[in-house]
Specification:
- By secondary structure, the chain is mostly beta strands.
- Helices cover 6% and strands 39% of the residues.
- It has 4 helices and 34 strands.
- A 6-stranded antiparallel beta sheet has the order 1-2-13-12-11-10, covered by helices on one side. A 5-stranded antiparallel beta sheet has the order 3-9-8-7-6, with no helix packed on it.
- The radius of gyration is 21 Å and the shape is globular.
- The termini are far apart.
- This is WD40-like Beta Propeller Repeat.
- It comes from Mariniphaga anaerophila.
């Protein structure tokens, strides 16, 4: 199936070849629909919390480290899944929706076959409110797509997107059909790429021909930025000698001066992944190890750039500091100057901090908050100056599911001015998106 055929049949759009590898698509415009934001836990929440999506489907933001608020902060990009509680199937469409936070409307601007339960369709804003980027499966390849919210024109690019450069010059990503870590027909972790849409050629070892791809958004040139072999050699850890390797999370810092990359190895006969955290320059040079496989193996997750672009915030269990439980940690991207953000509070969920490192937000997985006696996940707000914690609110996330792939995580994400927080929940068992206004609270 060719790109223009896909786009015509997938979402009813008409595609026109604009240049080699680039296809323009004219969207069928649909009017914005008026919705009513609903107060949530009005008498008990910290700040003002509202549900900003309608109850006509299954909504979620993208991820805790991807800002869903547009550059003007007037719009919110959300995913509308076709269902919940069953495997994402190729051909089923995820709607890309824009919520107008001032006028309380919602508009579907695109529909894509490229989605998963954890990131949705991976929505990234450009530097203005005009362009929104996502992924789609076109011409039997998972690639980046740009939606022009002014003209409704859609452009498909040559390579995949996990994250967009902060100056909107390029997107970077590992192939989205491989990012879930397939081996022997099994996935190491589902929900972060796209549904299986073709026979997979499973990776073996750490090849020099596969890795992190960069696509220039002006020229549409797709280049191999960092190969798996280059990463493997930079890590220089014999532990991975017999592993089959792949890349997972990719993140530019806000300054565009450094990139963060999770490297994983899986061993034959096992779907368990073994990560190392790398950083490098945006041209792929100067690959360095920030967190070793041995450090991460003691339990940890969710590395994220500090807003200063020089440090990383992450959950880790630093036994080398005498700690036996997971903590919120911070360290230079070189791995130096390792510190605990709090010795008091258990590290959990998806942490991120304000630019001055005064406040941290995070969440809990279902098993964690149930163990603490909660019936929903607290949206954690920790004052790092006083070391005191408050819950913005609690949200139900304990869906009746058969596999963790289908779970709903709150994934709290800061607004661009760090005065609001967007997160997911499932009141009444239906996925919804929330916004908490913390003006006057922090």
């Amino acid at each position: 199936m060719k790109r223009r055929d896909f786009l015509r049949t997938s979402a009813g759009f008409v595609a026109v070849a604009a240049a080699p590898g680039v296809f323009l698509v004219q969207c069928k415009s649909s009017p914005a629909v008026k919705i009513k934001f609903r107060d949530y836990q009005k008498d008990t929440s910290l700040g003002k919390v509202k549900i900003v999506t309608p109850d006509d489907g299954f909504y979620l933001n993208t991820f805790y480290d991807i800002c869903p608020f547009s550059p003007s902060q007037k719009l919110l990009a959300v995913n509308k899944l076709p269902y919940q509680g069953k495997t994402a199937e190729y051909g089923d469409l995820c709607d890309i929706c824009i919520v107008d936070l001032e006028n309380e409307t919602i508009e579907t601007v695109y529909s894509t076959k490229g989605w998963g339960y954890q990131l949705g369709a991976n929505l990234n804003w450009g530097i203005t409110d005009r362009y929104l980027y996502t992924n789609d499966i076109i011409d039997n390849d998972a690639v980046c797509v740009r939606i022009d919210l002014d003209t409704k024109e859609v452009k498909a690019f040559a390579g995949p997107m996990y994250h967009i450069a902060p100056d909107e010059s390029a997107v970077a990503g590992f192939p989205l059909d491989l990012i879930n870590g397939y081996q022997d027909g099994e996935s190491a972790q589902m929900g972060y790429g796209v549904p299986i849409y073709k026979l997979l050629e499973e990776l073996k070892g750490a090849p020099s021909t596969e890795g992190l791809w960069r696509t220039d958004l002006k020229t549409n040139e797709k280049t191999l930025l960092v190969s798996l072999k280059a990463a493997y050699e930079a890590i220089d850890n014999p532990y991975y000698a017999d592993a089959n390797c792949y890349f997972f999370h990719t993140k530019y810092n806000k300054q565009g001066t450094r990139m963060l990359q999770v490297f994983r190895g899986v061993f034959p006969g096992s779907s368990r992944y073994h990560p190392t955290l790398l950083t490098f320059n945006p041209d792929g040079s100067d690959i360095g190890v920030a967190v070793t496989q041995q450090q991460w193996a003691r339990r940890g997750n969710h590395p994220n750039w500090h807003p200063d672009g020089k440090r990383i915030v992450m959950n880790l269990t630093p036994t080398w500091l005498g700690e036996e439980q997971m903590r919120f940690c911070i360290f230079d991207y070189s791995g130096d100057n390792f510190k605990l953000l709090s010795k008091k509070h258990f590290g959990s969920g998806h942490p991120s901090v304000t630019p001055d490192t005064s406040y941290l937000i995070s969440d809990y997985y279902v098993g964690e908050y149930k163990k603490l006696g909660y019936d929903g996940s607290p949206i954690r707000l920790i004052d790092l100056n006083t070391d005191e914690e408050q819950a913005i609110c609690t949200v139900f996330t304990d869906l009746d599911i058969d596999a963790s792939t289908f779970r709903v995580d709150p994934h709290p994400a800061w607004s661009r001015d760090y005065k609001k927080v967007c997160f997911n929940g499932a009141p009444n068992g239906i996925r919804q998106v929330f916004v908490a206004d913390l003006e006057g609270v922090i």
